[in-house]
Design goal:
CATH class of one domain in chain B: Mainly Beta
Structural class of chain B: alpha+beta
Largest sheet of chain B: 10 strands, mixed
CATH superfamily of one domain in chain B: L,D-transpeptidase catalytic domain-like
Largest interface: A-B, 46 and 45 residues
CATH architecture of one domain in chain B: Beta Barrel
Shape of chain B: elongated
Shape of chain A: flat
Number of strands of chain A: 10
Number of strands of chain B: 14
Number of helices of chain A: 5
Distance between the termini of chain A: 70 Å
CATH class of chain A: Mainly Beta
Largest sheet of chain A: 10 strands, mixed
Mean pLDDT of chain B: 78
CATH architecture of chain A: Beta Barrel
CATH topology of chain A: L,D-transpeptidase catalytic domain-like
Oligomer: heterodimer
Order of helices and strands of chain A: HHHEEEEEEEEHEHE
Radius of gyration of chain B: 34 Å
Helix content of chain A: 25-40%
Low-confidence stretches of chain B: 9-67
Order of helices and strands of chain B: HHEEEEEEEEHEEEEEHE
């Protein structure tokens, strides 16, 4: 009994230490350092894919996992660029690194939270003006998972200011990352978790719309190869 | 048939004899109107309007028929495939060409900010309010509304001074009020502020009575601005000015 409990304690301590180590490692922008610079061919592929998006009159996003940023673009111009930290990338249950030549075009299916339903006020119960959602709407979520038209999930984690709560949340996420039944394990889908300040997570959520196109740079199908007749300088 | 052929052959011979080229084949042209015999008018007369007609066809100068330009020598070479660098540069150039020029508006629904732009410079930045994203069902009539600001490229279609809002059904349903039957009961003259700019499909950029809620996503899809910013934007834009909402 005592042996078992000692073993359980040691396992728990190991798990906690592992989680702390993961948390510390994940806080650093590891992807940026490891990612290679895209070649001319890869850049051209990206431009080609983007050009078709730019011709539409709708805004689109470029989630660049290599540069760790989310670009808001419309008609070929960058409207806004938000830096982010890529916590983890899991493809078919395995951790992977972004590669410059891999591109995926996705379409947002669901923002991960249902829209707030308006309930008309009861004429007998006057509404407190300071609590009227028409004037003061509730804050959008800071932690949500976006679903797409393909087996792909993007979790946007809005990090609060530095503090014990933020640290505890980070450790908690790292523990979940290590769990055998953690997110993305054994699944055939791609899961990416990114970290941004809480206000930016809300900003992303507010502006997202259904069927918005997201071009992900760094993961996707097989790397495209340049045509043989093209001369590479 | 034979007559026609012989007539056209004769015409050809005549034209070649005069050193002219054959006109291009095409739809039959009406012959020029026959010259009418008119008494020569005094030169100082102001009654004659238009070109003077020649007195007889013989005297008429031959109409000049422009020779078709010589055909350009055909290049036997097939189109040279672009190098990767050329393709890259061309795509970059094409993308850059899509960027708007002149005055335009950018509306960021994520931060509720509106930018009055000229080329790539911000002329004015303003806090606005955009769609709440809230959902209103009307179960008895099987209708529903989602109050989102539409995203994409739009144009200012109309500019209105002192706009009067004709409240739609949802404005009453949202308040738990009965929908009026008379149009006069739907009018809200001061709700939209002093100016409105129509983006189409019922979406406007307009003013508000609730300036305290600027910066928040509270609207039914329209873009609200404070009075001063609204006036500045209204004066700066024209009908057709592009508006980019993202």
């Amino acid at each position: 009994m005592s042996r078992k409990s000692a073993f359980a304690r040691a396992a728990l301590a190991g798990l906690l230490l592992g989680a702390i180590a993961t948390f510390v490692v994940l806080r650093r922008p590891v992807w940026r350092a490891r990612a290679a610079k895209p070649t001319l061919s890869q850049e051209t592929d990206l431009l080609e894919m983007e050009y078709t998006l730019a011709l539409s009159k709708k805004p689109y996003l470029i989630l660049n996992l290599l540069d760790s940023r989310l670009d808001y673009r419309l008609g070929g111009m960058t409207l806004k660029s938000l830096p982010l930290e890529v916590d983890s990338i899991r493809e078919r249950g395995r951790t992977s690194l972004p590669e410059p030549g891999r591109l995926t075009l996705l379409s947002v299916e669901d923002r991960g939270a249902p829209p707030e339903v308006i309930v008309p006020p009861d004429p007998d119960k006057p509404v407190d003006p300071l609590k009227d959602p028409k004037l003061f709407p509730p804050d959008p979520p800071t932690d949500y998972t976006l679903l797409f038209d393909r087996p792909f999930k993007l979790r946007v984690f809005g990090e609060r200011q530095e503090g014990w709560r933020s640290t505890m949340e980070g450790v908690g996420r790292a523990v979940v990352h290590w769990l055998p039944w953690g997110p993305g394990r054994g699944s055939s889908e791609t899961r990416i978790q990114v970290r941004v300040p809480a206000a930016e997570a809300q900003e992303i959520y507010r502006a997202l719309f259904r069927l918005e196109r997201v071009l992900v740079v760094g993961i996707g199908e097989k790397e495209s190869t340049p045509p043989s007749e093209v001369n590479v300088k | 048939m034979v007559r026609k052929a012989s007539r056209s052959l004769l015409l050809c011979m005549l034209l070649f004899a005069q050193g002219r080229t054959l006109p291009q084949e095409g739809p039959a042209q009406e012959p020029p109107p026959p010259a009418t015999e008119t008494a020569p008018a005094p030169p100082d007369s102001s009654q004659i309007v238009g070109d003077e007609q020649p007195s007889s066809p013989e005297e008429a100068p031959a109409p000049e028929i422009e020779a078709p330009p010589p055909p350009r020598p055909k290049k036997n070479k097939a189109k040279k495939p672009l190098t990767l660098q050329e393709k890259h540069d061309e795509l970059s150039k094409d993308l850059a060409a899509l960027a708007p020029k002149g005055i335009y508006l950018l509306i960021d629904t994520g931060t509720n900010r509106l930018y009055l732009m000229r080329d790539r410079c911000i002329l004015r930045a303003a806090t606005c309010s955009t769609g709440s994203g809230r959902f209103l069902p009307d179960l008895p009539r099987k209708r529903e509304w989602t109050f989102d600001t539409p995203k994409g490229e739009f144009k200012i279609r109309r500019k209105v001074v002192n706009p009067i809002w004709v409240k739609p059904d949802w404005a009453f349903i949202e308040e738990g009020e009965s929908i009026p039957k008379r149009r006069e009961d739907r009018l809200a003259p001061e709700e939209l502020g002093d100016y409105a700019m129509d983006l189409g499909d019922g979406y406007l950029i307009h003013g508000t009575l609730y300036e305290r809620s600027l910066g928040m996503s509270v609207t039914h899809g329209c873009v609200r601005l404070g009075a001063k910013d609204l006036e500045a934007v209204f004066k700066a834009v024209k009908i057709g000015t592009p508006v980019f909402i993202y």
